[in-house]
Design a protein that fits this description.
Layout: E1 2-4, H1 8-20, E2 25-26, E3 30-31, E4 37-38, E5 41-42, H2 45-48, H3 51-62, E6 71-75, H4 76-90, E7 94-97, E8 110-112, E9 120-128, H5 132-143, E10 147-156, E11 166-171
Parallel strand pairs: 1-11, 6-7, 6-9, 9-10, 10-11
Antiparallel strand pairs: 2-5, 3-4, 7-8
Helix pairs in contact: 3-4
């Protein structure tokens, strides 16, 4: 199930901010993570470098973290800046889940905090399209024994059948 979070004024403010940044939404064919081609692209990473935008966005999500959460997990590269901010604000350890096994060093899929069966976390990503990135992150965490209490994204650009809940701030139509 997809659930919208944030107040109307917070969503309007964030949408206006994203609209002002050139290139957040581009209308040209792009290949998506799952191999499909879309006629537009949503690049929330363009604004996650701004500390004020990142902090304001993180605050919206932090208010919706359940009391039992013990860690924050970043889904792929797009989730890392926002998950880091959320981890700091919520004072929860940060796990960064890779798309694929690291081929150097100690290898592995999880960097930072390594959750176990004692942990329940949230997953953070920038954009939801097919749900592949969040589903992969969730699968990795569950294989490590952790549970996942919720998933959060900034922009929902699709309504994929996931089998788990995802909370979002904006729909692509908002920007």
């Amino acid at each position: 199930m997809l659930k919208r979070i944030g107040s109307e004024s917070e969503r309007a403010r964030l949408a206006e901010t994203l609209k002002r940044v050139d290139g957040v939404v581009t209308y040209q064919p792009v290949k998506l993570r799952d191999g499909a081609v879309s006629d537009y692209y949503v690049d929330v990473k363009k604004v996650m470098g701004d500390p004020l935008i990142r902090r304001d966005t993180a605050k919206i999500i932090v208010r919706h973290i359940g009391a039992g959460a013990t860690f924050v997990a970043a889904s792929g590269y797009g989730g890392v800046p926002l998950a880091t901010e959320i981890s700091t604000l919520a004072r929860l350890p940060l796990s960064m889940v890779r798309d694929r096994e690291k081929g150097h060093g100690k290898g592995g899929l999880v960097d930072g905090f390594a959750p176990t069966h004692k942990d329940s976390g949230i997953i953070v990503d920038d954009v939801l399209t097919t749900g592949g990135s969040i589903a992969h992150t969730r699968e990795v965490l569950i294989k490590n024994g952790a549970s996942v209490s919720d998933c959060f994204v900034v922009v929902n650009r699709g309504d994929p059948p996931l089998g788990f809940d995802v909370s979002y701030i904006l729909k692509v139509e908002d920007i």
